[in-house]
Amino acid sequence: MGLGSNSSMRVEWVAAISLAAGAAAVGYLAYTRFLSKDKCCKAMVNLHIQKDNPKVVHAFDMEDLGEKAVYCRCWRSKKFPVCDGSHTKHNDETGDNVGPLIIKRKEA
Ligand code: FES
C-alpha cells in the first residue's frame, strides 16, 4: 500500500461521514417538523383577545342571560365573548366550520 492508497481511503471516510451527517441532519429536521410534539409548532386558537392574560375566562349569571345569548367559539369576534358573525369570514377563509354557542330558554 502506498501513500496514494491512504489518501484515497481518507477521502472515502470523509465522504461517508459527510453522507451520514447529512442524513442525520435531514432526519432531525424531518422529525422536528413533522413528528415533534413541541408547544412551539402548534397553532394558537386565540390570536388577539387579552393576550396579556395567562387564561381568558368569562363567567355570566344565568339570571342575566335573558331569553337568548350567543357566544363566540371561533375567537375572531370583535365583541368577544359575544358572537358578532366573524365566524362566517373565518370559515370562508380557512374552510373551518366553527359557529357560536347559543343559549336560550325553552319555548313554553
Ligand atoms: S364570531 Fe366567533 S363564533 Fe361567531
UniProtKB/TrEMBL annotation:
- Keyword terms, alphabetized: 2Fe-2S, Iron, Iron-sulfur, Membrane, Metal-binding, Mitochondrion, Mitochondrion outer membrane, Transmembrane, Transmembrane helix
Please, which domain of life does this record's source organism belong to? Eukaryota
Iron-binding zinc finger CDGSH type domain span: 55-93
Instruction: Identify one Gene Ontology CC term for this UniProt entry.
Output: mitochondrial outer membrane
Stretches for region Disordered: 85-108
The membrane-spanning stretches of this chain are 13-31
Q: Residue span of the signal peptide, if any? A: none
The record's section on InterPro entries has: CISD1/2, FeS-contain_CDGSH-typ, FeS-contain_mitoNEET_N, MitoNEET_CISD
Q: Which GO terms describe its molecular function?
A: 2 iron, 2 sulfur cluster binding; L-cysteine transaminase activity; metal ion binding; protein homodimerization activity; pyridoxal phosphate binding
Transmembrane is among the record's keywords: yes
Q: How does it sit in the membrane?
A: Single-pass membrane protein
Instruction: Enumerate the subcellular locations listed in this protein's record, separating them with semicolons.
Output: Mitochondrion outer membrane
Q: Please state what the protein is called.
A: CDGSH iron sulfur domain 1
Q: Which organism is it from?
A: Terrapene triunguis
Gene it is expressed from: CISD1
